[in-house]
Amino acid sequence: MNKKVSLKDIAQQAGVSTALVSYVLSGKEKESRVGQEIASKIKEIAHKLNYQPNHLAKSLRSGKTHTIGLIIADISNPFFANIARIVEDEAKKFGYTVIIGSSDENSEKSWDLLNVLRHRQVDGFIIVSSENSQNQIYFLKEQHLPFVLLDRYFPEIQSDFVSINNFKAAYDAGLHLIKNGYRRIGFIGYKSELFHMQERIRGYQQALKENNLIAKKNWLKRVSIQQIEKEVRTSIDELMAADNAVEAIIFATYSLAVNGLKYLNELKLKVPADVAIVSFGQAEVFDLYYCPITYLHQPISDLGKTAVELLVKKLKNPEEGMRQVLMEAKLISRESSEAKS
Protein backbone atom coordinates (compact mmCIF):
# COMPACT_ATOMS: atom_id res chain seq x y z
CA MET A 1 0.00 0.00 0.00
CA ASN A 2 1.42 3.35 -1.08
CA LYS A 3 2.20 5.83 1.68
CA LYS A 4 0.16 9.03 1.47
CA VAL A 5 2.35 11.94 0.37
CA SER A 6 2.60 14.66 3.01
CA LEU A 7 3.64 18.31 2.99
CA LYS A 8 6.81 17.19 4.78
CA ASP A 9 7.73 14.88 1.87
CA ILE A 10 7.40 17.75 -0.59
CA ALA A 11 9.34 20.11 1.71
CA GLN A 12 12.24 17.65 1.99
CA GLN A 13 12.54 17.27 -1.78
CA ALA A 14 12.25 21.02 -2.36
CA GLY A 15 14.65 21.88 0.45
CA VAL A 16 12.21 24.30 2.08
CA SER A 17 10.06 24.39 5.21
CA THR A 18 6.72 22.61 5.53
CA ALA A 19 5.08 25.98 6.22
CA LEU A 20 6.33 27.35 2.91
CA VAL A 21 4.93 24.34 1.03
CA SER A 22 1.59 24.86 2.79
CA TYR A 23 1.46 28.52 1.73
CA VAL A 24 2.19 27.69 -1.90
CA LEU A 25 -0.27 24.78 -2.20
CA SER A 26 -2.96 26.90 -0.53
CA GLY A 27 -2.50 29.55 -3.21
CA LYS A 28 -1.00 32.04 -0.76
CA GLU A 29 2.46 32.40 -2.26
CA LYS A 30 1.85 36.03 -3.20
CA GLU A 31 0.66 36.90 0.30
CA SER A 32 3.76 35.22 1.74
CA ARG A 33 6.02 36.78 -0.92
CA VAL A 34 7.32 33.43 -2.09
CA GLY A 35 9.49 33.70 -5.21
CA GLN A 36 7.98 32.48 -8.48
CA GLU A 37 10.84 30.03 -9.07
CA ILE A 38 10.51 28.25 -5.71
CA ALA A 39 6.69 28.27 -5.93
CA SER A 40 6.84 26.58 -9.34
CA LYS A 41 9.36 24.04 -8.01
CA ILE A 42 7.08 23.14 -5.07
CA LYS A 43 4.05 22.72 -7.36
CA GLU A 44 6.06 20.58 -9.77
CA ILE A 45 7.23 18.26 -6.96
CA ALA A 46 3.68 18.03 -5.57
CA HIS A 47 2.39 17.04 -9.00
CA LYS A 48 5.21 14.53 -9.51
CA LEU A 49 4.51 12.89 -6.13
CA ASN A 50 0.75 12.93 -6.85
CA TYR A 51 0.05 14.91 -3.69
CA GLN A 52 -3.64 14.85 -2.65
CA PRO A 53 -4.62 17.53 -0.11
CA ASN A 54 -6.67 16.50 2.90
CA HIS A 55 -9.81 18.56 2.31
CA LEU A 56 -11.50 17.19 5.43
CA ALA A 57 -8.71 18.38 7.70
CA LYS A 58 -8.67 21.72 5.91
CA SER A 59 -12.42 22.18 6.32
CA LEU A 60 -12.24 21.25 10.00
CA ARG A 61 -9.63 23.95 10.54
CA SER A 62 -11.44 26.65 8.58
CA GLY A 63 -15.06 25.70 9.18
CA LYS A 64 -15.52 25.89 5.39
CA THR A 65 -15.89 23.09 2.85
CA HIS A 66 -15.43 25.28 -0.23
CA THR A 67 -18.45 23.63 -1.80
CA ILE A 68 -21.62 25.17 -3.24
CA GLY A 69 -24.94 23.36 -3.49
CA LEU A 70 -26.74 23.94 -6.80
CA ILE A 71 -30.39 22.90 -7.05
CA ILE A 72 -31.80 23.17 -10.56
CA ALA A 73 -35.26 22.42 -11.91
CA ASP A 74 -34.54 19.81 -14.59
CA ILE A 75 -31.07 18.63 -15.61
CA SER A 76 -32.47 17.14 -18.85
CA ASN A 77 -33.47 20.62 -20.05
CA PRO A 78 -30.61 22.17 -22.10
CA PHE A 79 -31.19 25.56 -20.46
CA PHE A 80 -30.56 24.20 -16.97
CA ALA A 81 -27.79 21.84 -18.10
CA ASN A 82 -25.93 24.83 -19.55
CA ILE A 83 -26.58 26.91 -16.44
CA ALA A 84 -25.13 24.10 -14.28
CA ARG A 85 -21.99 23.92 -16.42
CA ILE A 86 -21.45 27.69 -16.22
CA VAL A 87 -21.99 27.76 -12.45
CA GLU A 88 -19.55 24.88 -12.04
CA ASP A 89 -16.87 26.54 -14.18
CA GLU A 90 -17.27 29.95 -12.55
CA ALA A 91 -17.24 28.53 -9.02
CA LYS A 92 -14.00 26.70 -9.80
CA LYS A 93 -12.33 30.07 -10.52
CA PHE A 94 -13.08 31.07 -6.93
CA GLY A 95 -11.87 27.74 -5.52
CA TYR A 96 -15.29 26.17 -5.00
CA THR A 97 -16.60 22.75 -6.01
CA VAL A 98 -20.28 22.49 -6.98
CA ILE A 99 -22.59 19.66 -5.91
CA ILE A 100 -25.57 19.54 -8.29
CA GLY A 101 -29.07 18.18 -7.71
CA SER A 102 -32.20 18.27 -9.89
CA SER A 103 -35.58 18.83 -8.23
CA ASP A 104 -37.57 17.77 -11.32
CA GLU A 105 -39.91 20.69 -10.56
CA ASN A 106 -40.96 18.95 -7.34
CA SER A 107 -40.92 20.93 -4.08
CA GLU A 108 -40.59 17.80 -1.91
CA LYS A 109 -37.57 16.62 -3.87
CA SER A 110 -36.14 20.14 -3.66
CA TRP A 111 -36.54 20.06 0.13
CA ASP A 112 -34.81 16.66 0.30
CA LEU A 113 -31.92 17.98 -1.80
CA LEU A 114 -31.64 21.05 0.40
CA ASN A 115 -31.29 18.88 3.49
CA VAL A 116 -28.79 16.53 1.85
CA LEU A 117 -26.63 19.48 0.80
CA ARG A 118 -26.98 21.08 4.22
CA HIS A 119 -25.75 17.88 5.89
CA ARG A 120 -22.86 17.84 3.41
CA GLN A 121 -22.08 21.24 4.94
CA VAL A 122 -21.96 23.20 1.70
CA ASP A 123 -20.96 26.82 2.29
CA GLY A 124 -23.88 28.25 0.32
CA PHE A 125 -26.65 27.55 -2.17
CA ILE A 126 -27.67 28.59 -5.67
CA ILE A 127 -31.28 27.58 -6.24
CA VAL A 128 -33.66 27.42 -9.19
CA SER A 129 -36.85 27.30 -7.17
CA SER A 130 -39.70 24.87 -7.77
CA GLU A 131 -43.33 25.75 -7.20
CA ASN A 132 -44.52 25.91 -3.58
CA SER A 133 -40.97 26.02 -2.21
CA GLN A 134 -41.26 29.38 -0.44
CA ASN A 135 -40.94 27.67 2.95
CA GLN A 136 -37.48 26.45 1.92
CA ILE A 137 -36.36 30.00 1.20
CA TYR A 138 -37.76 31.23 4.50
CA PHE A 139 -35.89 28.39 6.23
CA LEU A 140 -32.57 29.41 4.66
CA LYS A 141 -33.15 33.01 5.75
CA GLU A 142 -34.02 31.98 9.32
CA GLN A 143 -30.92 29.78 9.53
CA HIS A 144 -28.74 32.57 8.07
CA LEU A 145 -27.53 30.22 5.34
CA PRO A 146 -26.11 32.10 2.32
CA PHE A 147 -28.05 31.60 -0.92
CA VAL A 148 -28.85 33.18 -4.27
CA LEU A 149 -31.98 32.41 -6.29
CA LEU A 150 -31.32 31.85 -9.99
CA ASP A 151 -33.78 32.27 -12.90
CA ARG A 152 -36.80 32.24 -10.57
CA TYR A 153 -37.62 34.18 -7.44
CA PHE A 154 -40.51 35.04 -5.13
CA PRO A 155 -41.31 38.78 -5.13
CA GLU A 156 -42.86 38.54 -1.66
CA ILE A 157 -39.57 37.25 -0.17
CA GLN A 158 -36.66 39.65 0.22
CA SER A 159 -33.68 37.72 -1.14
CA ASP A 160 -30.73 37.87 -3.52
CA PHE A 161 -31.64 36.76 -7.02
CA VAL A 162 -30.51 36.78 -10.64
CA SER A 163 -33.18 36.46 -13.31
CA ILE A 164 -34.39 37.88 -16.59
CA ASN A 165 -37.15 40.44 -17.06
CA ASN A 166 -39.77 37.86 -18.03
CA PHE A 167 -42.56 40.39 -18.49
CA LYS A 168 -40.57 42.40 -21.04
CA ALA A 169 -39.34 39.28 -22.85
CA ALA A 170 -42.89 38.01 -23.44
CA TYR A 171 -44.06 41.54 -24.25
CA ASP A 172 -41.31 41.83 -26.87
CA ALA A 173 -42.36 38.48 -28.38
CA GLY A 174 -45.97 39.63 -28.68
CA LEU A 175 -45.00 43.02 -30.08
CA HIS A 176 -42.70 41.40 -32.65
CA LEU A 177 -45.54 39.24 -33.97
CA ILE A 178 -47.96 42.17 -34.04
CA LYS A 179 -45.51 44.34 -36.00
CA ASN A 180 -45.12 41.47 -38.48
CA GLY A 181 -48.85 41.48 -39.17
CA TYR A 182 -50.17 38.78 -36.83
CA ARG A 183 -53.36 39.55 -34.92
CA ARG A 184 -54.63 36.25 -33.53
CA ILE A 185 -51.82 35.18 -31.20
CA GLY A 186 -51.95 32.20 -28.86
CA PHE A 187 -49.75 31.46 -25.86
CA ILE A 188 -48.85 28.09 -24.35
CA GLY A 189 -47.38 28.10 -20.85
CA TYR A 190 -47.41 25.93 -17.75
CA LYS A 191 -50.04 25.54 -15.06
CA SER A 192 -47.83 27.24 -12.52
CA GLU A 193 -48.06 30.03 -9.99
CA LEU A 194 -44.32 30.64 -10.20
CA PHE A 195 -43.68 34.33 -10.73
CA HIS A 196 -41.62 33.99 -13.91
CA MET A 197 -44.43 32.10 -15.67
CA GLN A 198 -47.06 34.59 -14.51
CA GLU A 199 -44.87 37.44 -15.78
CA ARG A 200 -44.54 35.80 -19.20
CA ILE A 201 -48.31 35.49 -19.45
CA ARG A 202 -48.76 39.10 -18.31
CA GLY A 203 -46.23 40.37 -20.87
CA TYR A 204 -48.03 38.56 -23.70
CA GLN A 205 -51.40 39.94 -22.60
CA GLN A 206 -50.05 43.49 -22.25
CA ALA A 207 -48.62 43.48 -25.79
CA LEU A 208 -52.04 42.58 -27.19
CA LYS A 209 -53.88 45.07 -24.97
CA GLU A 210 -51.62 48.00 -25.90
CA ASN A 211 -52.25 47.31 -29.58
CA ASN A 212 -56.03 47.12 -29.16
CA LEU A 213 -56.15 43.41 -29.83
CA ILE A 214 -58.62 41.29 -27.92
CA ALA A 215 -56.90 38.35 -26.23
CA LYS A 216 -59.52 35.61 -26.21
CA LYS A 217 -59.43 33.53 -23.05
CA ASN A 218 -59.13 30.31 -25.03
CA TRP A 219 -55.99 31.61 -26.76
CA LEU A 220 -54.12 31.26 -23.48
CA LYS A 221 -53.30 27.64 -22.73
CA ARG A 222 -51.76 26.28 -19.54
CA VAL A 223 -50.44 22.73 -19.53
CA SER A 224 -49.25 20.38 -16.79
CA ILE A 225 -45.52 19.65 -16.67
CA GLN A 226 -46.35 16.02 -15.87
CA GLN A 227 -48.64 15.71 -18.93
CA ILE A 228 -46.72 18.01 -21.25
CA GLU A 229 -46.91 15.98 -24.49
CA LYS A 230 -50.61 15.15 -24.21
CA GLU A 231 -51.71 18.61 -23.10
CA VAL A 232 -49.61 20.50 -25.66
CA ARG A 233 -51.31 18.44 -28.37
CA THR A 234 -54.75 19.25 -26.97
CA SER A 235 -53.84 22.93 -26.70
CA ILE A 236 -52.70 23.09 -30.33
CA ASP A 237 -55.84 21.27 -31.50
CA GLU A 238 -57.94 23.90 -29.73
CA LEU A 239 -55.83 26.84 -30.93
CA MET A 240 -55.95 25.65 -34.55
CA ALA A 241 -59.66 24.75 -34.56
CA ALA A 242 -61.40 26.24 -37.62
CA ASP A 243 -63.58 28.70 -35.70
CA ASN A 244 -60.76 29.77 -33.40
CA ALA A 245 -57.56 29.37 -35.42
CA VAL A 246 -54.67 31.54 -34.27
CA GLU A 247 -52.07 32.89 -36.69
CA ALA A 248 -49.16 32.60 -34.26
CA ILE A 249 -48.16 30.83 -31.05
CA ILE A 250 -45.73 31.91 -28.33
CA PHE A 251 -44.27 29.00 -26.36
CA ALA A 252 -43.26 29.92 -22.81
CA THR A 253 -40.40 27.38 -22.63
CA TYR A 254 -38.09 25.33 -24.82
CA SER A 255 -39.73 22.04 -23.77
CA LEU A 256 -43.18 23.31 -24.72
CA ALA A 257 -41.87 24.45 -28.10
CA VAL A 258 -40.21 21.11 -28.90
CA ASN A 259 -43.41 19.21 -28.13
CA GLY A 260 -45.46 21.74 -30.07
CA LEU A 261 -43.25 21.67 -33.17
CA LYS A 262 -43.32 17.86 -33.25
CA TYR A 263 -47.11 17.89 -33.20
CA LEU A 264 -47.39 20.63 -35.84
CA ASN A 265 -45.30 18.40 -38.11
CA GLU A 266 -47.68 15.49 -37.51
CA LEU A 267 -50.60 17.75 -38.42
CA LYS A 268 -48.69 18.80 -41.56
CA LEU A 269 -49.08 22.44 -40.57
CA LYS A 270 -46.33 24.61 -42.04
CA VAL A 271 -44.35 27.23 -40.11
CA PRO A 272 -44.86 30.14 -40.69
CA ALA A 273 -47.37 29.72 -43.58
CA ASP A 274 -50.02 28.13 -41.34
CA VAL A 275 -48.82 29.36 -37.95
CA ALA A 276 -45.92 31.57 -36.86
CA ILE A 277 -43.80 30.53 -33.86
CA VAL A 278 -41.80 32.35 -31.17
CA SER A 279 -40.30 30.52 -28.20
CA PHE A 280 -38.40 31.17 -25.01
CA GLY A 281 -35.10 29.34 -24.66
CA GLN A 282 -32.44 28.91 -27.31
CA ALA A 283 -31.55 25.37 -28.34
CA GLU A 284 -29.74 23.63 -31.20
CA VAL A 285 -32.97 21.95 -32.24
CA PHE A 286 -34.29 25.37 -33.29
CA ASP A 287 -31.46 25.56 -35.83
CA LEU A 288 -32.12 22.04 -37.12
CA TYR A 289 -35.84 22.59 -37.72
CA TYR A 290 -36.70 23.09 -41.41
CA CYS A 291 -37.75 26.63 -40.55
CA PRO A 292 -35.33 28.39 -38.13
CA ILE A 293 -37.29 29.32 -35.00
CA THR A 294 -37.49 32.85 -33.60
CA TYR A 295 -36.52 32.71 -29.94
CA LEU A 296 -35.82 34.80 -26.87
CA HIS A 297 -32.12 34.54 -26.14
CA GLN A 298 -31.55 34.43 -22.40
CA PRO A 299 -28.06 35.48 -21.23
CA ILE A 300 -27.26 32.08 -19.71
CA SER A 301 -23.57 32.78 -19.20
CA ASP A 302 -24.20 36.09 -17.44
CA LEU A 303 -26.97 34.58 -15.30
CA GLY A 304 -24.75 31.74 -14.06
CA LYS A 305 -21.63 33.84 -13.55
CA THR A 306 -23.49 36.59 -11.70
CA ALA A 307 -25.19 34.10 -9.37
CA VAL A 308 -21.79 32.67 -8.41
CA GLU A 309 -20.25 36.12 -7.94
CA LEU A 310 -23.09 37.25 -5.67
CA LEU A 311 -22.86 34.10 -3.55
CA VAL A 312 -19.06 34.26 -3.23
CA LYS A 313 -19.33 37.89 -2.07
CA LYS A 314 -21.83 36.80 0.60
CA LEU A 315 -19.56 33.96 1.69
CA LYS A 316 -16.60 36.30 2.03
CA ASN A 317 -18.64 39.01 3.73
CA PRO A 318 -21.87 37.91 5.46
CA GLU A 319 -22.80 41.59 5.84
CA GLU A 320 -22.81 42.06 2.04
CA GLY A 321 -25.97 43.93 1.01
CA MET A 322 -28.80 42.22 -0.86
CA ARG A 323 -28.55 42.25 -4.65
CA GLN A 324 -31.45 41.69 -7.04
CA VAL A 325 -30.36 41.50 -10.67
CA LEU A 326 -32.76 41.53 -13.64
CA MET A 327 -31.24 40.95 -17.08
CA GLU A 328 -32.79 41.45 -20.50
CA ALA A 329 -33.60 38.65 -22.95
CA LYS A 330 -32.95 39.45 -26.61
CA LEU A 331 -35.40 38.45 -29.32
CA ILE A 332 -33.62 36.69 -32.19
CA SER A 333 -35.90 37.10 -35.21
CA ARG A 334 -35.85 34.28 -37.77
CA GLU A 335 -38.04 32.72 -40.44
CA SER A 336 -40.66 31.20 -38.12
CA SER A 337 -42.16 34.62 -37.44
CA GLU A 338 -41.38 36.50 -40.65
CA ALA A 339 -43.73 39.29 -41.72
CA LYS A 340 -47.00 38.20 -43.28
CA SER A 341 -47.12 38.77 -47.00
UniProtKB/TrEMBL annotation:
Q: Name one GO molecular function term.
A: transcription cis-regulatory region binding
Superkingdom of this entry's organism? Bacteria
The record places domain HTH lacI-type at 5-62
InterPro entries linked: HTH_LacI (IPR000843), LacI/GalR-like_sensor (IPR046335), Lambda_DNA-bd_dom_sf (IPR010982), Peripla_BP_I (IPR028082)
Q: Per UniProt, what is one Pfam family of this protein? A: LacI
User: What CDD domains does this protein's entry cite?
Assistant: HTH_LacI, PBP1_EndR-like
Q: Which keywords annotate this record?
A: DNA-binding, Transcription, Transcription regulation
Name of the molecule in the record: LacI family transcriptional regulator
Q: Which organism is it from?
A: Adhaeribacter arboris
